[in-house]
Design brief:
single chain; mainly beta; Maltoporin, Chain A; 22-stranded antiparallel beta barrel; disordered N terminus
């Protein structure tokens, strides 16, 4: 990527926005509320923070029907949420999620200051939320490991000793949606209080299983989330909050992977599979039209010289329909016990956070992907984590502001790959009755112990009344030890990982991340800032099938220019950020010629460059009319980045190795060049009958890709999605009723595309159109 030239061209709209922020003077009758964030580990106004932050208040979350992290992409410029199985795959500013399961997250997820190490923990819904902060760009100094492209932080409402408060909302809608959200706050004394929050949701699958019905469908809901908090505040300078959270999800969800089978891409002239320019053959089973083996094992066979598909399973032709005989499962549970101590002195504020988190994830699905009783597979993941953070923040009125801290995390992780064979095959068709019913001996379990310790500090110094400089640094040390256990070959009737295969995998990594920058106030209501910062994705083991192999940290250097403005007497908030991110040491496949054969291994060798402009506009036109816009313009491209082509042909020869992909110059997955959101609402006063607020959200995305490899079935065309709602509120605002519809156009948009064994092309799709009614009381 030619960074310098694009910097110059992209700076033009950025400078124009900055000029608008300094000179605009249009007057409006409405006013925007101040938003307070903790993006720099202290309470600050959103407009005073030299970080690109999207802050969504609890009221806005309810007004827009944002129930989980997947809906945040309409409000956070550049954020994209892909999905595969129970693994969210967020992407932001060129950082994409490629490694999942036992690997670390690339866009980290926090709740109430707690780092959540597993991808599936981001699936928990929102209830009784004060705000959500999306920090865009690496946050390597204050948040550290794995805030590689940014982070999402969900902050709940805290207990309040001053008043008893409660509220609830019930929801119903299509796919038999039934939901409940509620909270209860009660003072125990003048200095203590409790607060409880509860969320439940059930919904039928919107991916229909044509073979076994709703019990085998995908993307349903069946979850319960509870949070209880106890606050002791014996003085104005000391408080202690104890918190217990429990989340249980017993839905089918996405099962193991939840993919729709597109078919098998074949070059009909050669009989070789080709994901770049092949013809998609609409079947799951095998066929002798292929020069080699293609199609899922146990999914039937199609003899090309005989009419019809013979026994080969065909695709459904509908991304929201499958034909599979094994009921999928996705059981998630997450228990958190945490405490926060805050003590304010004349010198500084001390915050101590300790937590214990126990997360379990079991996934199971039909792995022949057909109506045949062939085989099933899944994962069994457990994560037991303890976290401690000690933070000291200055509270004086002088020119120097600072924060220092120590962060410690310990995680015991297990990840087992599961596979069960039910029947042997004749012409790739399982025999009846099933004759095997045993767990595969080649499956295994990896057990990883991680210990991470970091020390950090960041300071800001006011050089003048309008200019400040800032600098920060963090040192992180990670240690991992792992063992790999295989399935007991003498006990195949159940999972029994007792055979020690790798006893002594280990890795030690350390990384220094830093940030420097400056802030300049231009007038009373505009701030300009410039920062350079670094971040990293932690080094790790390569997986249960890779023995003692590991990879090192993946790093990013980020340059950012930003502008934050309040205009028109506080009725317009205009924030913009221009960034350049340079990612290095990304995981790529490399080859070594041993003289006898060529070995493939994963190494830190890939590069990505991203450059972009993000704009957030909120305008209280009047007390009744509210408008908003979110825009992301980016060019995220791979640099030198080679991957093996997992189909039989379609690649090129690189360094003497045939059938490889060189991604140099291609768009990074889940990184559209342009996304934009328009928001509008209008309050209609009904007098004694209350108020009515119709609202609209229109989201547009240009085309993008959903995998690193350049497969034709992984290209998502440009699309528009519209959300509509009408909210009635009683005169005293106690009662509300919201009628809503999402994805009015019923667009089927890609979340992920990949290749499964047998060269089957599979994809995952976002929600179809959905509608419902939510009735609330004081909520």
């Amino acid at each position: 990527m030619e960074i310098n030239g694009r910097l110059s061209r992209a700076s033009i709209p950025f400078l124009a926005l900055t000029a608008l922020g300094m000179v605009a003077g249009a007057h409006a009758q409405g006013a925007l509320e101040e938003i307070v964030v903790t993006a720099q580990k202290r309470d600050q106004s959103l407009q005073d923070v030299s970080v690109a932050v999207t802050a969504v208040s609890g009221d806005e979350i309810k007004a827009l029907g944002i129930t989980d992290a997947f809906r945040l992409e309409i409000l956070a410029p550049g954020l994209q949420l892909g999905m595969s199985g129970a693994d969210p795959r967020p992407a932001l500013r060129g950082a994409r999620t490629q490694q999942v399961e036992a690997n670390d997250v690339a866009i980290s997820f926090y709740t109430d200051g707690l780092y959540r190490p597993r991808h599936g923990q981001a699936l928990a819904g929102f209830v009784d939320v004060d705000r959500v902060e999306v920090l865009r760009g690496p946050q390597g100094t204050l948040f550290g490991r794995n805030s590689f492209g940014g982070l999402i932080h969900v902050i709940s409402n805290k207990p309040d000793p001053s008043d008893t408060d409660y509220g609830f909302a019930v929801s119903g809608g299509d796919y038999a949606l039934a939901g409940f959200d509620g909270f209860f706050n009660a003072p125990l004394s003048d200095t203590s209080a409790v607060r409880f929050a509860l969320k439940t949701e059930t919904r039928d699958p919107y991916v229909e299983n044509l073979t076994i019905g709703d019990d085998g469908g995908l993307k349903d809901a069946d979850m319960t989330y509870f949070r209880g908090q106890l606050l002791f505040a014996p003085s104005d300078t000391l408080d202690l909050t104890l918190r217990v959270e429990s989340w249980q999800d017993d839905s089918n969800g996405n099962g193991h992977f939840g993919y729709y089978v597109e078919g098998i891409p074949v070059n009909l002239s050669t009989g070789m599979t080709n994901g770049v320019s092949g013809t998609m053959r609409p079947r799951i089973g095998r066929s002798d039209e292929c020069a080699g083996t293609c199609g899922r094992g146990g999914a039937g066979f199609d003899f090309k010289d005989m009419p019809g598909p013979d026994t080969a399973q065909q695709v459904t032709g509908n991304p929201y329909a499958i034909e599979q005989d094994t009921p999928p499962q996705r059981d998630l549970s997450d228990l958190t016990v945490a405490g926060d101590l805050n003590w304010s002195t004349d010198f500084a504020d001390l915050k101590v956070t300790v937590a214990y988190m126990d997360y379990e994830e079991y996934r199971w699905a039909d792995c022949d992907m057909s109506a045949y009783n062939g085989n099933a597979c899944g994962n069994d993941i457990t994560s037991e984590t303890t976290m401690q953070e000690f933070q000291l923040t200055s509270n004086s009125d002088g020119p120097l502001e600072w924060v220092v801290g120590v962060f410690m995390l310990q995680e015991d992780l297990t990840n087992a790959f599961l596979w069960e064979d039910f029947a042997s095959n004749v012409d790739n068709t399982p025999v009846v009755p099933a004759d095997i019913n045993a767990h595969a001996t080649w499956t295994n379990q990896i057990r990883v112990d991680t210990s991470s310790t970091a020390g950090y500090g960041q300071a800001s110094y006011a050089v003048t009344d309008t200019a400040r400089v800032l600098a920060g640094v963090r040192y992180t040390s990670d240690e991992r030890d792992w063992q790999i256990y295989g399935q007991d070959p003498n006990n195949r009737s159940t999972y029994s990982f007792t055979v020690l295969e790798v006893p002594d995998g280990e890795g030690d990594w350390s990384e220094v991340t830093w940030k420097v920058g400056g802030e300049l106030d231009v007038g009373e209501d505009t701030m300009l800032y410039a920062t350079v910062s670094t971040g990293f994705l932690a080094g790790n083991q390569q997986g249960a099938f890779q023995g003692t192999n590991s990879y090192d940290e993946q790093t990013v250097t980020a340059f950012e220019l930003g502008s934050k403005s309040l205009l028109a007497d506080g009725s317009v908030r205009l924030n913009a950020a221009f960034y350049v991110n340079q990612f290095e040491d990304l995981l790529a496949t490399r080859f070594v010629d041993t003289g006898v054969t060529t070995l493939a291994f994963t190494d830190n060798a890939g590069e990505i460059d991203a450059i972009g402009l993000e704009v957030e506009l909120d305008w209280a036109v009047t007390d009744q009319l509210q408008l908003g816009a979110r825009v992301s313009m980016q060019q995220a491209e791979y640099g030198d980045f080679a991957l093996p082509n997992v189909f039989q042909e379609g690649g090129e020869t690189i360094s003497g190795i045939a059938n490889q992909f060189q991604l140099d110059g291609l768009q990074v997955q889940n990184s559209p060049d342009f996304t934009g959101t328009l928001l509008g609402s209008y309050l209609v006063d009904l007098g004694a009958s209350g108020t009515l607020i119709p609202s609209i959200t229109v989201y547009y995305s240009s085309d993008y890709r959903v995998d690193d490899s350049n497969w034709f079935f992984g290209n998502q065309d440009a699309y528009t999605k519209t959300d509509l709602s009408v909210t009635w509120a009683s005169v005293n605002q106690d009662w509300t009723a919201r009628l809503w519809v999402t994805n009015l156009e019923d667009e089927a948009t890609l979340l992920k595309a990949t290749r499964f064994g047998g060269d089957v092309a599979v994809t995952d799709y976002a929600n179809p159109r959905m509608w419902g009614l939510t009735v609330g009381y004081r909520y």
